[in-house]
Amino acid sequence: MSYKEILYDVADNILTITLNRPEKLNAFTGTMMSEMIDAFQRANKDDAIRCIIVTGAGRAFCAGADLSAGASTFDATQRADRPERNAGPVGSVDWSDERVRDGGGRVTLEIFECLKPVIAACNGPAVGIGATMQCAMDIRLGSEAARVGFVFSRRGIVPEAASSWFLPRIVGIQRALAWCFSGKVFDAKAGFLRNEILPFGLKAIVARVSKAPSWLDNKECIVLDYSETSLVASHIRDEIREIEPGFYLGKVYWDSKRIFDFSLDFRKKKASS
């Protein structure tokens, strides 16, 4: 499958998926949905890919759904350009019909079921599906330009993409409700949806992902280097290695001392939209 709205680049066993509609701030479309699903399925089948990074082209990560169709954006009966989504009028629609499934949810469930670690590299504004797709990813990293918001209440619609399941599990039910009720957009200073190392009070963590020899046995592994975050974080190094398809072991170092181990198991994850 050739892609029109995403880029698929593999280097050093790391796949980078780039949302590629910079002139539209990478607004989400049906084409982008299909291409992202295909890209994750393709990556699952490629043993050479050890890790996936998702980012956006230009100055945005993803500005949410493409609303260029105006009031008809979410009304498939009025979208002559998307006949594949038209399952009939609301009063007679069969809600089990594949055509009425939440497109964002199809993407997030594909991400959640992915056998490889998925890292969000949020490089700019991310609202709506731009925010909710990150909830299904394993690590969320934001640049200083990142702005993230669950703005559905401002459009009179409910959060999509299974985010009502994912978000409370990341930030807690009270904070998830506050963010969704308010529709507030957070900037980088708020530390929104970024990894936190709580003992050190670090909220915006920048990690450089690469392949390098492990400090344990000198064998190749995936390394997360936080040296660009702060002086304190420069002492921290994560190493991740795939033990078998979908199962990874990791080690965290403080300087050269190993302080704890962890595992990432992507083999039997289940979620419902």
Query: Could you say which structural class the secondary elements and strand pairing correspond to?
Result: alpha/beta
Instruction: Indicate how many domains the architecture comprises.
Output: 2
Per CATH, the superfamily of the largest domain is 2-enoyl-CoA Hydratase, Chain A, domain 1
Summarize the biggest pleated sheet: 5 strands, mixed
Q: Supply the CATH class of the largest domain.
A: Alpha Beta
Low-confidence stretches: 191-204
CATH topology of the largest domain: 2-enoyl-CoA Hydratase, Chain A, domain 1
Strands, count:
13
Protein architecture, described:
This protein has 273 residues and is of the alpha/beta class. It folds into two domains: 6-190, 2-enoyl-CoA Hydratase, Chain A, domain 1 (Alpha-Beta Complex), CATH 3.90.226; 201-265, no CATH class. The chain has five helices and 13 strands. The protein has helices at 30-44, 103-112, 129-135, 163-171, 173-182; strands spanning 6-11, 14-19, 51-56, 118-122, 125-127, 139-142, 147-149, 185-186, 208-213, 220-225, 236-244, 247-254, 257-265. The longest helix is centred in the first third of the chain and has 15 residues, at 30-44. The chain is globular, with a radius of gyration of 19 Å.
